């Protein structure tokens, strides 16, 4: 029978779960077997009550929350406008660690979206312009033609951020840290926001 070889850490968790998240994220980023530590499952629920999940990339951690960016005409963006609450899930299998986050979602301001967009590669910037995200695509050739057309359109100048593309900040009210232990007796610690402070409790596995 397979047994976990993960060693138990004696370090107590930080009183601030966002600081603790940064410590776990840095550890995942240093682990060669974790290829995309920033990959996370974003779960949303729209007006019809049907949950949807998809993998997206974390693009920043602030004192107020977690940042990600998307096409504002995408299904996830529509669902976030209809119901501005979401959940994030990180799972780093080589570390046997998981983090679950719940909270409200708000749009970042234009200046912050512009600043992040400017850091993307040129082709990624053009890709944001040409993609009618999640809509039917008649052929791959059409997508390539749109890319070439927009490369010609922008020439050698900067590619501006599309007006239909921006970012969101998930402001957490619950963060759970899960660490695998032998015999399914896992460690689970849940932080819950109470006003301006966080309360922490242990959960049964």
List keywords for this structure.
205 residues; alpha+beta; Pnp Oxidase, Chain A; 2 domains; nine-stranded antiparallel beta sheet; disordered N terminus
Protein described:
The chain has 205 residues and is an alpha+beta fold. It folds into 2 domains: 17-118 and 163-202, Electron Transport, Fmn-binding Protein, Chain A (Pnp Oxidase, Chain A), CATH 2.30.110; 122-160, no CATH class. 26% of the residues lie in helices and 34% in strands. It has 5 helices and 9 strands, in the order αββββαββαααβββ. α4 (122-130) crosses α5. The radius of gyration is 20 Å and the shape is elongated.
**CATH homologous superfamily title of the largest domain:** Electron Transport, Fmn-binding Protein, Chain A
Radius of gyration from CA coordinates: 20 Å
Low-confidence stretches: 1-8
The tally of beta strands, per DSSP, is 9
CATH architecture of the largest domain: Roll
Coarse shape = elongated
Number of domains as seen in the coordinates? 2
Task: Compute the number of helices.
Answer: 5
User: What is the element string, with H for helices and E for strands?
Assistant: HEEEEHEEHHHEEE
Proportion of helical residues:
25-40%
Structural class: alpha+beta
CATH class of the largest domain: Mainly Beta
β-sheet strand percentage: 25-35%
CATH topology of the largest domain: the name is Pnp Oxidase, Chain A
What is the makeup of the main sheet?
9 strands, antiparallel
Q: On the 0-100 scale, what is the average pLDDT? A: 94
* Distance between the ends: 20 Å
């Amino acid at each position: 029978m397979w047994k976990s070889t993960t060693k138990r850490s004696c370090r107590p968790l930080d009183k601030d779960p966002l600081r603790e998240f940064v410590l776990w994220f840095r550890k995942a980023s240093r682990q060669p077997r974790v290829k995309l530590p920033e990959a996370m499952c974003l779960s949303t629920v729209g007006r019809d009550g049907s949950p949807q999940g998809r993998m997206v990339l974390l693009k920043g951690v602030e004192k107020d929350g977690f940042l990600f960016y998307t096409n504002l005409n995408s299904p996830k963006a529509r669902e976030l406008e209809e119901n501005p609450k979401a959940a994030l899930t990180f799972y780093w299998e080589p570390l046997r660690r998981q983090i679950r986050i719940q909270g409200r979602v708000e749009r970042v301001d234009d200046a912050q979206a512009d600043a992040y967009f400017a850091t993307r590669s040129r082709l990624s910037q053009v890709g944001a312009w040409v993609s009618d995200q999640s809509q039917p695509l008649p052929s791959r050739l059409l997508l390539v033609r749109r890319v070439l057309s927009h490369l010609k359109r922008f020439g050698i100048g900067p590619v501006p951020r599309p007006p239909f593309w921006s970012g969101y900040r998930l402001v957490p009210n619950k963060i759970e840290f899960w660490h695998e232990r032998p015999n399914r007796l896992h460690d689970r610690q849940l932080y819950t926001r109470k006003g301006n402070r966080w309360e922490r409790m242990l959960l049964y596995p």
